[in-house]
Amino acid sequence: MIPNLYNSLYCNGEEREFTNVRHEKVVVNEDSKVVIVGRIMDDMIGRSQGIVEQVVVFVNQVTDPNLLHQHLIKWGVKTPRLAPADQRDDYLVDFRAGRGSVLITSDRMPLGYDVSKPVGVIFFDIPTVPREASQPEPDYSLFHHIAGRAGKSNDRIGRVVTLLDQASDFHLLDNIEQHFDFQASQVDRYGVNMIS
């Protein structure tokens, strides 16, 4: 394992763009997950000690982004819903132009999408490969692609935070850490550090 939090990730033997990324994991219970996302965004965007200008929140399921979107609107965070394909490009253009600080996305985020401003990444869910199995398998490529958005800035350390609220999440993140040879540091400062 690479002990440094600001490590490089390796994929298929090649160094990738994660040299400027700090990986963190936050253990939450399901009931507080959305609230914890709000606290992490406060931390990232600047209402307290912000290090990025925009945040990408990854979700696996279609129901999660709508619930998350509703809570963010209540907190005064302007963010578009996860949009149908015909509206998605407009939202991405607006986000890239800085007309939004939060983008909720799923595996639909275009692989060629690039950002110029520092971006933080929150994995509300860990990306998994769609399959009919009792034990989910991480989608390494999608994790790498989404987390890579945080490492694009040359002048700041990017931040990737993965939320863990189920026993399977620990297994998935362990597999990702082993695959890419890094260790996420556990962060307990957001008020919840136990699984219900």
Automatic annotation (TrEMBL):
<dbReference type="Pfam" id="PF00271">
    <property type="entry name" value="Helicase_C"/>
</dbReference>
<dbReference type="InterPro" id="IPR027417">
    <property type="entry name" value="P-loop_NTPase"/>
</dbReference>
<feature type="domain" description="Helicase C-terminal">
    <location>
        <begin position="46"/>
        <end position="195"/>
    </location>
</feature>
<protein>
    <recommendedName>
        <fullName>Helicase C-terminal domain-containing protein</fullName>
    </recommendedName>
</protein>
<dbReference type="InterPro" id="IPR001650">
    <property type="entry name" value="Helicase_C-like"/>
</dbReference>
